[in-house]
Amino acid sequence: MHHKKILIKLFLGIILTIILGFSSINIKADSWHKGIPNVCRRAKLWKSNLFRSKDFDFGKGYMRYLLLSSDSKIFGYSSDWYTRNKKMADQGSVEGTIYNPVYKKTSANKYIVKGTKYVKSNLNWQYIIQKNGKKHLKEWMKGNYKPFYKWTYMGTFTKSKL
């Protein structure tokens, strides 16, 4: 009888160790890391393809989004506007800026990036970045701004030089 109690306690101890071992792996996978993912750090500038835009001060034209990063402390996007002939008409200011970003890996090639330092002009932006090959990213964003209350797909971005 004494041996049976020892075997039961040993068996329960092994099961408890296995359960705690798996739960600690999950905790590490869900943790937030300082900076931006390595995927984004490969280039300071990422450009989307040109797309038609009706919301254009100069009439109908084209638009392009830019993802910008600076030494893992600032992350944001900007937009460039082009005429019907695809010539640069206007450069937008940097918007959707997050300061002191942190990121969490959600799947093999997907990350959520958000800011930890908030300023008055910052609208609590968050980004989902998905690696799509060596030179491409897909990006979604949301924030406290009407078109972006829900996750909004911003397009596929290509690595570019400043």
Shape: elongated
Q: Helical stretch count?
A: 2
Q: State the CATH topology of the largest domain.
A: Lipocalin
| Biggest beta sheet attributes | 8 strands, antiparallel, barrel
Tell me the helix content: 10-25%
Total count of strands: 11
Beta-strand content bin? over 45%
| CATH A-level architecture of the largest domain | Beta Barrel
Instruction: Count the domains.
Output: 2
Characterization of this structure:
This protein folds into two domains: 1-31; 33-160, Lipocalin (Beta Barrel). By secondary structure, the chain is an alpha+beta fold. It is built from two helices and eleven strands. Residues 24-28 have low confidence and may be disordered. An eight-stranded antiparallel β-barrel has the order 2-4-5-7-8-9-10-11. Strand 4 and strand 5 form a beta hairpin. It starts with a helix and ends with a strand. The longest helix is centred in the N-terminal third of the chain and has 28 residues, at 2-29.
